[in-house]
Amino acid sequence: MKNINTVIFDMDGVIVDGMPYHIQSWKEALSTIDMPVSDLEIYLLEGMTGRETMEIFASKSNRSLSDETVENVIRLKRKIFNDIFTVTLMKGVKDFLFELKDRRYNLALVTGTRLEVVKKVLQMGLNDIFKVIVTGERVNKGKPDPEPYLKAVDELGARKEDCIVIENAPAGITSAKNAGLTCFAVQTSLPEEYLKDADKIFQDIDGVSKFLLK
């Protein structure tokens, strides 16, 4: 695409197939306080911080939770996730990243996931790919707030009109759009009906690659 020189990636569902592990760990942790949630509810909140996610779950369940309970559930969720998580890169994404790097695109990663998990993903041969990495610990407000993507653009020293964001979830799309960025979505976690606010929707990363690098 003309003038585009910066691509900013979400991680779960875009770089790595991590959502099944997030779903399992959220469900197991929430079961300890008898708070059932569906897979779809978790997918729709992907990208938010643990605390923001818990606030929404509690509200939907008409529950008032103490700060201690919230922190205990989040801590347990993280422990379960760390115990079960296995890094599997999304199909085609590694070749896409290296092709972008070879063509001198500026690349960034913006995720609500913690740095300790991101490091496991980067060990899959991606350590030198991203100029900027914004994790959940580095922002005051997670997606759908624009802060994570605004932080990435600022640290890259990029112009918004030169950037494209690649996302797979509504919260991330809203975050990118509210940051004033063009956003492409991939249907790796949710169908098109949930991604309609993106500027363009693709089946997968291969579709984005063919479009962007044609």
Overall geometric form: globular
Low-confidence stretches: none
Number of domains: 2
- H/E element order: EHHHHHEHEHEHEEH
What's the CATH topology name of the largest domain? Rossmann fold
Mean pLDDT: 96
The strand order across the widest sheet is 3-2-1-4-5-6
The CA-CA distance between the termini, in Å, is 8 Å
Task: Write the CATH architecture name of the largest domain.
Answer: 3-Layer(aba) Sandwich
Q: CATH superfamily assignment of the largest domain? A: HAD superfamily/HAD-like
- Given this structure, which CATH class of the largest domain is correct? Alpha Beta
Strand content: 5-15%
Number of strands: 6
| Biggest sheet record | 6 strands, parallel
How would you describe the overall organization of this protein?
- This protein is an alpha/beta fold and 214 residues long.
- The chain folds into two domains: 6-18 and 87-212, 3-Layer(aba) Sandwich (Rossmann fold), CATH 3.40.50; 19-84, Putative phosphatase, domain 2 (DNA polymerase, domain 1).
- Helix content is 43%, strand content 12%.
- The protein has helices at residues 19-31, 39-44, 50-60, 67-84, 93-102, 115-122, 147-156, 170-178, 205-212; strands spanning 6-9, 106-110, 132-134, 163-167, 182-186, 200-202.
- The protein has a six-stranded parallel sheet with strand order 3-2-1-4-5-6, with helices on both faces.
- Helix 1 crosses helix 4.
- It is globular.
